[in-house]
Write a structure and sequence with these properties.
mainly alpha; Amino acid/polyamine transporter I; two-stranded antiparallel ribbon
């Protein structure tokens, strides 16, 4: 029988339509089946863990099949300058206005700018790793997607859960600091006077901040409306903010004194150890650049825009952070710097009270910009984790008219507002740093593994063994540094890291280079990133590790009791639909002929 070519085309279109329709109907069908079989599924936990924990997706599946689960596509409206502005807006305001004063006073002294340089180098190296992944896999999942296609489902989930924890806690902390600077803008020195104290609650959770809640909910509604309009709002605020930073830097250098950098106690009164401890805490300041990678599905020309947006924003922000830290320490001796609203208080101490009020207003605006970008990124992370069925699938829905992940944005906005209402900044700041450093450490490991094993088809054992030795040596170096007495460990473990890296580069070939963008000088830059992330993690306090361990246990239990079963059921159902989705083409053609 002769088949009209137009009918062939129609049949193929029909197949595609049925495929997309089936993908869109999976969530509701899956949820019914999942809830019905849940108790029976618990008895199969070992089998399902073996099958799902190391299950990986290809980049093509991540870009196409998984993305269909959101129903509608996100709208590609952003250009490279939007990304640079979003990256700058996301980082500026968080670090300088939240961590600089307390780190200068308690950890680094006037050498806090060196702490920023060290943290900036680590962030830049991590951003290079992010950039290569984001160019090759331009999806909204960021580190979650990169690790899932490399190390499997559980590692991706673990990283994704930590990223969400980092975003929600940091946004809550920054929202509370917004109240402090708004108070300063109105000439109020005690921010707690604008908070409601409840005596029955624990210390650190007993000062309710309704202003922080209001700004979080307002930004949540803005982000639900449109990504492009939110980007334009951020661009306007970021331009103003950079000009405002220039004002602080110029006035600070003009009115400050170099003597304050060396008196009292010298440039580094707490020693080299204090500088490095400070670097681990101010790393909190660089949260935000990774949110740029989560916008990959909304960018025009990702291979060009993403490298410019991610790396450009990190370099610009690093320079501004160092200059701002210097300006603060030149205006006021480090032991007189206020831990809260540091810059406003510094201007008031040099007799420029009006400037202190202006700084409070400008800092408030910068904090709003950084909150906007961070909340933009956190919703996209949760949306993609929902696509993977590791959390309830309704969180993955993209609204067809606005093109935004509406449910994820609303859910995380409510969570952030709830934490901002109760929790003091000191309680969350270090657990944020440890979660961030761990995720960046995993991304650097994933880049080496992907480049040498998946791309270049080398046997995995050599690369995995190298990564194990590298991490062990970095931990050994860091513990030797922390114990103070074990100085012999520093040259020993440092030498081991250099030796094994050189040996690995010589023995394991890395021939091909991606056609678009890749990290130069592999594996050295990724190795330095791994080392710095491990080293900075070990400088944090033991309480941070204890809190992080509790969080890690909670998310692991959630994966075992929910995530693994949900993804197992979803994959089984999709396999069945892939087999049965389209009837015999000849039957379709006969119907069409009729």
């Amino acid at each position: 029988m002769h088949i009209n070519p137009h009918l062939k085309l129609l049949t193929e279109s029909h197949k595609t339509l049925i495929s997309v329709t089936n993908m869109a109907t999976i969530p509701s069908t899956h949820n019914k089946a999942f809830s019905f079989n849940y108790l029976q599924s618990l008895s199969q936990i070992p089998h399902r863990l073996r099958k799902r924990m190391l299950a990986t997706w290809t980049p093509d599946q991540e870009l196409n099949q998984v993305r269909l689960r959101s129903g509608a596509d996100m709208k590609r409206k952003l250009r490279w300058y939007d990304l640079v502005a979003l990256g700058i807006g996301g980082m500026l305001g968080v670090g300088v206005f939240v961590t600089t004063g307390r780190v200068a006073r308690n950890d680094s002294g006037p050498s806090v700018f060196i702490s920023y340089i060290i943290a900036g180098i680590s962030a830049l190296l991590s951003s290079l790793c992010y950039t290569e992944f984001s160019v090759q896999i331009p999806v909204a999942g960021g580190a979650f997607s990169y690790l899932r296609v490399t190390f499997g489902e559980f590692v991706g989930y673990f990283a994704g859960a930590n990223i969400l924890m980092e975003y929600v806690l940091s946004n809550a902390a920054v929202a509370r600091s917004f109240t402090e600077y708004v108070c300063s803008a109105f000439g109020v020195n005690d921010p707690n006077s604008w908070r409601v104290e409840v005596h029955g609650l624990l210390e650190g959770y007993n000062k309710l901040d309704f202003i922080a809640v209001a700004i979080v909910l307002l930004l949540t509604l803005c982000l639900c409306h449109s990504t492009k309009e939110s980007s334009i709002l951020n661009l306007i605020m970021t331009i103003f903010h950079v000009v405002f930073f220039g004002f602080i830097i110029i006035i600070g250098f003009y009115n400050g004194s170099v003597d304050n950098l060396v008196k009292p106690g010298g440039l580094a009164p707490y020693g080299v150890r204090g500088v490095l401890d400070g670097a681990a805490i101010v790393y909190f300041s660089y949260i935000g650049y990774d949110s740029v990678s989560t916008l990959a599905e909304e960018i025009q020309n990702p291979p060009v825009s993403l490298p410019v947006g991610i790396i450009g924003s990190v370099l610009i922000v690093s320079a501004l952070y160092c200059l701002m830290a210097l300006a603060l320490c030149m205006m006021v001796p480090y032991n007189q710097i206020a831990e809260k609203a540091s810059y406003s208080m510094a201007f008031q101490k040099i007799g420029w009270k009006w400037a202190g009020n202006v700084v409070g207003a400008g800092a408030s605006l910068g904090i709003v910009a950084s909150l906007l970008v961070a909340m933009l990124g956190q919703a996209r992370y949760l949306c993609v984790i929902g696509r993977a069925r590791l959390v309830p699938s309704w969180l993955s829905k993209v609204h067809p008219s606005t093109g935004t992940p509406l449910n994820a944005t609303l859910f995380l906005g409510i969570c952030t507002a709830s934490i901002a209402l109760f929790t003091d900044l000191d309680i969350v700041i270090e657990i944020i740093s440890i979660g961030t450093l761990l995720v960046f450490y995993l991304v650097a490991n994933a880049l080496i593994y992907r480049k040498y094993v998946i791309t270049n088809k080398n046997p995995p054992f050599r690369t995995l063994f190298f990564l194990f030795l590298l991490t062990s040596s970095a931990i050994g170096f860091s513990i030797s540094w922390k114990l103070k007495q074990q100085w012999w460990g520093l040259p020993l473990f440092g030498g081991i890291i250099i030796t094994i890296t050189a040996f690995f580069q010589y023995m394991v070939p890395c021939l091909g280079r991606p056609s678009v963008w890749s990290v130069p000088f592999m594996p050295w830059l990724a190795v330095i990133s791994i080392f710095l992330n491990v080293f900075l993690m070990t400088t944090l306090k033991m309480l941070s590790f204890q809190r992080f361990a509790i969080w890690a246990c909670l998310i692991t239990v959630f994966y075992v009791l929910y995530g693994v079963h949900s993804t197992f059921e979803a994959e089984e159902m999709e396999m069945e639909m892939a087999v049965n989705e389209v009837p015999d083409p000849s039957i379709q053609l006969t119907k069409l002929d009729v």
